[in-house]
Request: fold
Amino acid sequence: MYRELISSFILFLIFNSQGILAQASVNPDSALQKILLSHKGTKLSLADAKQSALENATSVEAAEAQYLAAVATVRRESGFFDPEFFFSYNYVDQKMPAASFFAGANTLSTQQTDYKTGLRLNLPIGTQLELSMNASKLNTNSTFAFLNPEYDTYGAISFRQPLLEGFSATARERLSMAENLLEGKKYFYNQQMLAINTSVERVYWDLYALERNYAVQELTRDEAKALLQEAELRSKSGLVGPNQVANAKTFLAQQELLLLDSEEQLDKQSDQFAALIGKKPGGGTTRFIPTDEPSSDYYVENADLLVDYTLNSNLDLQAAKKNVESINIQVSSAKWKVLPSLDLFGSLGGNGLTGTPQDVVFGDQTFRTTRSGSFGDAITQLTKREFPNWSIGVELTLPVGFRSNSAEKERLEAEGINAQQIYIELSRSLEEQVRSAWRELSHGKKRIDAALEGVKAAQEQVRIGMIEFHNGKSTAFELVRLGADFATAQQRYSEALVRTAKAAALLKQLTSGKYTGRN
Reply:
């Protein structure tokens, strides 16, 4: 599609200045630049494109949401070890028919109020602690009640400690997994920001190349018109036959079609770019126009050093490693859960009893308790442990068959092997991508220099060909062939620039920013 570039440009010069044509050097680049400057669109720098993508890219937003969810998960699992305050209140009013003389009434009526309050705490080593206080107030119509109302209190510090569950290995299992998940999601989020920057940069350079290709094709189309005009003038002068005019018309029609195809490719690429950065062209335009030029000079690190950067710094790889560690945490916990459950438990507490004493008449005798006091007195007895108590014990639970926990351990071990293989596969894939990108980058300078030499040589061929054409030693379609060579050389030069820039951008992503492209 580039051969029309030179031929039409040559014919344009021929048509406008026959005298100058034989003496002057042709500069198709300047004509190309004029067309590029005439293109309508929203000019956009690479830095602005990256900033827009970071603000609007769905992949970054999704990664951030996952990271925030992981932060909340850590808070939730940490909350398992927060103290828990509890309080309960229960009031019971009941009347019960009595058949026994010792009930103290024909219809026994009681009103009982129960209170329970305290703190519960789970420790990271698996210990369950509870500090509790229970109190009750009992009113009754029984004539045999020595205290009415009666105040009862009971309080204790109790604990339960699993002895065969690995202590923190099982107690912190969920929190440790959540912490690993958080680190992995943080790596993933940061890598997504690097990835979107790389994607934007690579698509930006593709858009740059298509913009230039479209300009080349537009110039070729314009110069094809000049070729037709020249052929028609020469036909009228009898210098060429009508077949030359027909050929020029065919050539122009082909270039018109190629120009439409090139424009569609450019518009499609611009639409894809707009979707990537989440921003549409403004000012009533339909496409973006890159304002930055790809660099032709990047610092090339040693390939093995770049591989080391990647294996040690790549955030995707670090996230995969955290996934392996999370499964290993589950495996470690599962190994303890296969064992029988042996818990040590105990308590240390006290009791209190007070109330309002009343006489109890039994036969011809009257009895009266020596214990009395208010509700506060009962609590004082409890806190001073005037009536202490303590307990200690063990509880053994032995599952028959051990199938459930042992099968879960084996399942997790298999998942651990799978996660480890995914990690290894990813590291190998990253190394292969690094070496491939390094090869492109290391050849980039030579490729650009060679392509530039090709442009210069093709330009010189065009200059000579135009002189020969003017002197009747060459045909118009020989100029078309020379123009195609020059257009191809221009295309290869653009491709060399873009290819090198994209390789450098990919290395920045693979090394997670460790490689910068500068010495």
Remarks:
- The longest strand covers residues 341-357.
- The two ends are 39 Å apart (CA to CA).
